Amino acid sequence: MSTSNADLRYPIGRNTYTGSESEAEIEAWIEQVAGHAEALKPVLERVPDEALSWRYRPEGWTIRQVIHHMADSHMNSIIRFKLALTEEKPTIKAYDEARWAELADTLNQDIHDSVHILEGVHARLGTLLHSLTAKDLIRTFIHPHHNKEMSIKELIGLYAWHGRHHIAHIEQALASKGQYT
Fold first, then answer.
1. Domain residues of the chain, as ranges?
2. DSSP states of 63-100
3. Can you give the pLDDT at residue 11?
4. At what angle are helices 63-86 and 152-176 packed, to 10 degrees?
5. pLDDT at 3
6. Where are the beta strands (DSSP E) in the chain?
7. Which element (helix H / strand E) includes 14?
8. What is the CATH number of domain 22-176?
9. pTM to 2 decimal places
10. Fewer beta carbons within 10 Å, N or C terminal of the chain?
11. In whole angstroms, how far apart are CA 118 and each of 115, 163, 174?
12. Averaged pLDDT, groups of 10, the chain, 181 residues long
């Protein structure tokens, strides 16, 4: 039985958000977000240099691109959280992640630079997200790419999923043993 490209694209499934998540679920998301850099380290210990060019699916990103994308995305996330916490329903800035993944710093840069970024961003996110009140969790912003209003609570869930999603991509690329290079 072959695995579909959609299955390879979403190895942990698509992100789901109902809006009825419990306080315990939100706290678990916050712990996941705060711990993403630490969760990434044991996976990266299994990535030999030659595997950085391996893809997690045909025509998908390489492991190197995934790691740099995580740093790009999660740097944007802290800005989004702060905008939503300090402005009334701001419209955040979207970016073209596919085009960012083709820039020289993503294609050629040492992954450890992005790992260091992730360590710092997630340490700060942990502090910020643990400080949120129930009132903060329902603050919103406008995401122009999705053309919708999103709450901070939803954004926490999205980034908890996002980190796990891309760590699964790296594991998937390693499991492929370079099959998609």
1. 22-176
2. HHHHHHHHHHHHHHHHHHHHHHHHSSSPBPPP--HHHH
3. 96
4. 180
5. 60
6. 140-143, 148-151
7. none
8. 1.20.120.450
9. 0.94
10. N
11. 5, 10, 21
12. 72 94 96 98 96 96 98 98 98 96 97 98 98 97 93 97 98 92 81
